[in-house]
Amino acid sequence: MKKIIIIILLGGFSLSAYGQYSETIATARPGVANGAGTVGKGILQFQSGIQFDNVQDTRDSSQWHINNISENLVVRFGIQERLEVSAVINHINSTEFINEDTAKIYRNGVNTSLLRARAKINKNMAFQVGIRTKLRGKDYQIRYFAPRFRLMYNTSLGKNANLTTNIGGFWNGNDSKPTGFYVFSFSYALTKDLSLVAESYGDFVRSKINNYFDVGLGYNINKDLLIDLNAGWGKNYPYKSYFITAGVSYRIITGFRSEN
How much is the pTM? Predict the structure, then answer.
């Protein structure tokens, strides 16, 4: 596996075909899927959002809940047309309680800090590797650096529709058990600037699979600025959950991009 990752990453430096810079900003928002594109050489891109989510234990009538409010920021930069690096940071405020009359447990801090590299393999496929770092709040510390990887594939379903497939795996940083994940993301251009996304995704450890669904809208204010709204839900015994998130993405063409 290490040799494959190294070959893919080194190959990204030498491949210059299929220029990735597009006239309109392309992001991983709305939704959880990552498209098989890179931002393009010299492009600095920011993707930010705020999310509200709730998790409830359904095993008894005690109604145990966790309510979360989190802020997420992704910064991407194109080293070459087909190679980019990125950093992800997520801050969360969490409230845990059984019901409104019981004492509550509060947690807050950075619960995700991640460094990544993505290489374009061909027109429709890309591979991404990353590592979760220990730069996080005291309530969310991990014992080890935690690697993760993702293979992304885009399929055109016609003039206005696309299917994006992701598959990969990650480690949680506290034990040696990997978790796999998948995403199927359908997108449709309702107008030139407005797009609809519907997704089915989940994670699996051995024989246990958790499945989730979401729908979202993305609107291009201009070629470099996107706003989005997305909501999702899941019911995987003994838990049920839902979330709603909104975000904004913006890109800058830096002086590192040479004009052809």
Answer: 0.87
